[in-house]
Design brief:
By secondary structure, this protein is α+β, with helices and mostly antiparallel strands. The protein is built from 4 helices and 10 strands; from the N terminus they run αβααββββββαβββ.
């Protein structure tokens, strides 16, 4: 009789121990999946994911889904707010991030393209970049969600600094505009949305040694 009682006690103890270990494992797993980070000044989704060893291309969508009630406009982060990190083994983290790219033209509202799933590898056309560079290959989504407003300065009746080199009139605004267009192209290739504030509908990216000056630049959307 005593022997049977001891067996029953051992069975009960083992059962309780099994339940306890299972609960502890579940709790540890939950904690691992619910790791939280407090956003600091300068933090964005890309930076937080990268700093915590998570590939932004793979985990951005999961991060947004986990924290959609804590995000600001265009998925910005608030300083001092806690944000959950996605589980590295989560099925939802395997969603391919979409890319939202765009650039304004000289007269219309910003011609932002609609988000396209797995847009990396696709080619988008932006005539403002000029015929040679208008077709832009989207190489990655590392800047997905980032919006840039680029202003090269001067333009129209104001050429900026002027000089004469090898018999050519050189104007600051033409070169600043060309460099800014090249920056816009690089940002778009990485998934960013870009709007040009200074706009020249005739001058895209130019590879000439000397850029011919003109005065037809406008300020977005079409202001002299």
């Amino acid at each position: 009789m005593m022997r049977d009682s001891n067996i029953h006690i051992k069975i009960v103890v083992r059962f309780i121990l099994t339940i306890f270990l299972a609960f502890a494992a579940a709790l540890l797993n939950l904690n691992a999946q619910s790791k939280e980070i407090i956003a600091k000044n300068g933090d964005g989704i890309y930076k937080i994911l990268r700093n915590n060893g998570l590939n932004p291309d793979k985990y951005t969508e999961s991060f947004i889904e986990l924290n959609k009630t804590r995000l600001g406009k265009d998925n910005t982060l608030f300083i001092g707010v806690k944000y959950r990190l996605p589980d590295a083994d989560s099925k939802t983290s395997e969603i391919v991030a979409s890319v939202n790219t765009g650039i304004s033209d000289s007269t219309s509202e910003p011609s932002t393209t609609k988000p396209a799933a797995n847009a990396a590898g696709k080619t988008m056309r932006y005539d403002i970049l000029g015929p040679k560079y208008a077709n832009v290959e989207i190489k990655s989504s590392e800047l997905k969600g980032a919006v840039y407003y680029l202003k090269s300065g001067h333009g129209g009746p104001d050429p900026g600094a002027m000089g004469n080199y090898q018999g050519n009139v050189v104007c600051e605004d033409e070169y600043a505009y060309d460099v800014t267009l090249r920056l816009a192209k690089n940002l778009i290739e990485r998934g960013a949305t870009v709007y040009m504030i200074t706009i020249d509908k005739n001058d895209g990216i130019r590879d000439n040694s000397f850029l011919k000056p003109d005065k037809d630049e406008v300020c977005y959307p079409n202001l002299t």
